[in-house]
Amino acid sequence: MASIREVKNSIEETAEARSSEEIMEKAEARDKVIVRASCIGIGANVLLAAFKAGVGLMSHSIAIVMDAVNNLSDAASSIITIVGTKLAGKEADKKHPFGYGRIEYLSAMVISILVLYAGITSFTESVKKILHPETPDYGAAALIIVAAGVLVKILLGRYVKGVGERVHSDSLVNSGEDASMDAVISASTLVAALIYLFTGLSLEAWLGAVISLVIVKSGVEMLGGTISQILGERVDPELSKEIRKTVKSFPGVQGAYDLILNNYGPDDYSGSVHIEVPDTYSACQLDQLLRDISLTVYKKHHVILTAIGVYAVNTHDPEAVDARNKVSKIVMSHPGVIQMHGFYFNKEEKKLRFDVMISFDVPDRKASYREIREEVEKAYPGYQLEMSLDTDFSES
Hints:
11 helices; 14% strand; alpha/beta; 6 strands; three-stranded mixed beta sheet
């Protein structure tokens, strides 16, 4: 079987030059957007960290110092995002024929770990200050800087997260969420300072501990989401629906099933699908049809179909059509069955084959499979039954 690199090269050579150029330009534009947003984040966080560190040290405020450290971790996150984006854009090679797109997931994971580390570190420092408190000394300049930091972080968080969602960059989304969390932290620090100035009650060490736990929670959630993506999540149902719609739009294609998509980076998919076509199709007709489907799916959805399986549909035997309807009625009467496909009836050799897809929501899929098999075998005694249990990768 040809490698994904060979398949991709073959498709790109066959596709119109304009379409290929548009895809490449789109990828390059995406990288530029990510780098630009990250650079803005680096600049803003470094300036905020410098001002807050100075204010925190002068006022003996552990909360403001920890806020400054958090800003530095955000700047580091943006640097990691840039490096990850650049590395992910490397061309596929012999060692990594699927490309380097998944590096973006690794960079998002590193950012999550940094957030988690910052939360644990700030919690430790806050506990130390609870045990050995220092009297803070807030000035007007300190409060103004902290207030300005809140505003900057709110705007920066919305901007970075918005860009990340638009270009499907988990690293940017994580950075944006972290920035929004920082705005809450800075606002809490400001509130603690005002309470101290008006009441003389110092709550910032306790507040720092609470904030730290919130940061830890955020880091754990971000890390869990990134690991889930690395393990492999179900693809966007809308994308699956559109691809199957495109495949079924070709004359002669009576159904598209078993669509499996593997993600090798944001918006970088390859996969396979099965189609149902009349059993009268010649090898030449099938060859041209499969090539046309592969090319069209790549051009419309930027998805490489490395394999297209074929199910032959009985077209000239009325008894086969009746058998399909009868078996379909038996199969679909069972709760949790999503679909039946790949049906073929061979009366001469007394063979009957089809695939059944059972939802993950069914408590015991194998038991349901056995019940369906027993009913079909009872309805067609003496027939060799080839019944496969399919996995619902992307149908729902």
